[in-house]
Design goal:
dioxygenase; 2-oxoglutarate-dependent dioxygenase activity; Double-stranded beta-helix; TauD/TfdA family dioxygenase; 4-stranded antiparallel sheet; TauD/TfdA-like; AlphaKG_dependent_hydroxylases; 7-stranded mixed sheet
């Protein structure tokens, strides 16, 4: 069996501390290669949805580096960090283009919110995390452990905080196995449907809330999609959503406690020039509260990219509404929002074809439009 077909394994904090091979320090040659590819892309002067992987030429060595990075998220620990890119040499706009093109090389980017943004600025702009419309990326708040809406989430660190803002990662597989060992009744609850709010960021054809399990299994592989803030949002916002049972609340509380436990949770400081890639289906992430520098140009600033990968595992059937498709070798995931244009849809279809994956994520939109035309 090839390594790529070996599912990610659960891990504990001590595992990541004792073997840090999941952190790759970029070589000077790799940096030069990425910068050469970036210069080439910038000279083309194309818009982001006009670009493809072919517009970002890399040497075979760096092509293999990016491929290995994505493979590392799908096997082993489910995480990989590329460290040491000289972001200070480039503008923020150029770094956005670099990150975007790295994503195009390995998968298909996914939309991330109401405005259908594909690269998000993780930056405190005064947002509110808690509540029926809260998201965490535009606040400086402490964030719960959660998965993002894609196969892989990538973060690129442009500026660090004055204090705080630690990146917390936890193996959802290890936490679930421990929950199953201690309280199998609560573990079972997590495999049953919960109601999730779309936090007011849904497209017109999408319902404002939906059902999905937190944990599921497909083809014998574990997958976890835990976004408690969205579960809370559904409870706060929608009167017709059933209230959480005492057993559901207990299961959520115990799972959250295990994810944050000293035995499992790993704390890391993202450094300027880091690229962090996580497999959302087996690794959950959180963040400590942080304080920014007083100067606006020194505020903590990360770029976030969500990717659908050709090699991504098949997902539980109960996730179909959330992901639009749960098959392997299929485009899936994202928070669609209201800004998907024909140009963006054509881009997704073209890039899916380039990566040899099916593109069926707009079937619900097409059905909705046909129904409207028949009225």
């Amino acid at each position: 069996m090839s390594q790529l077909h070996t599912p990610p394994r659960g891990w504990k904090r001590a595992d990541l501390e004792s073997d840090q091979s999941w952190i790759h320090l970029l070589t000077e040659q790799e940096i030069q290669d990425l910068e050469a590819g970036l210069r080439h892309v910038l000279a083309l002067n194309k818009k982001e949805f006009e670009l493809s992987a072919a517009d970002f030429p890399l040497t075979p060595v760096t092509q293999k580096l990016l491929a290995r990075t994505m493979d590392a998220t799908q096997t082993g620990l489910g995480i990989c960090v590329l460290r040491g890119f000289p972001v200070a040499r480039w503008s923020k706009a150029a770094m956005r283009t670099l990150f975007w093109c790295m994503g195009l090389s390995v998968g298909v980017p996914r939309p991330q919110g109401k405005q259908s943004q594909y690269v998000s600025d993780v930056l405190n702009t005064g947002g509110t995390y808690r509540g029926g419309t809260g998201r965490g990326y535009n606040t400086n708040s402490k964030l719960d452990f959660h998965a993002d809406g894609s196969d892989v989430v990538g973060l690129m660190c442009l500026h660090t905080a004055q204090s705080g803002g630690k990146s917390l990662i936890s193996s959802s597989l290890s936490a679930y196995e421990e929950l199953e060992r201690r309280r199998p009744d609560l573990a079972k609850v997590l495999t049953e449907p919960f109601y999730f709010s779309r936090q007011g960021e849904h497209a017109p054809e999408e319902p404002p809330y939906y059902q999905a399990s937190i944990v599921g299994f497909k083809d014998g592989r574990f997958a976890c999609r835990h976004i408690r803030n969205h579960i809370t949002g559904a409870q706060i916002t929608f009167e017709d959503v059933p209230r959480l049972s005492a057993l559901q609340t207990e299961a959520l509380d115990m799972f959250d406690a295990l994810l944050a436990s000293e035995e499992i949770c790993y704390h890391m400081d993202l450094q300027q020039g880091d690229f962090q890639f996580l497999n959302n289906h087996v690794v959950l992430h959180a963040r400590t509260e942080y304080e920014d520098f007083p100067e606006p140009e020194r505020k903590r600033h990360l770029l976030r990219l969500w990717l659908s990968l050709p090699q991504g595992q098949a997902l539980p059937e109960l996730w179909a509404i959330a992901y639009k498709d749960v098959a392997t070798r299929a485009l899936r995931g994202g928070f669609r929002g209201v800004g998907i244009t024909p140009e963006i849809r054509a881009f997704e279809e073209r890039l899916s074809k380039e990566h040899n994956i099916a593109c069926r994520v707009y079937q619900d939109r097409d059905q909705h439009q046909r129904a409207q035309q028949q009225q």
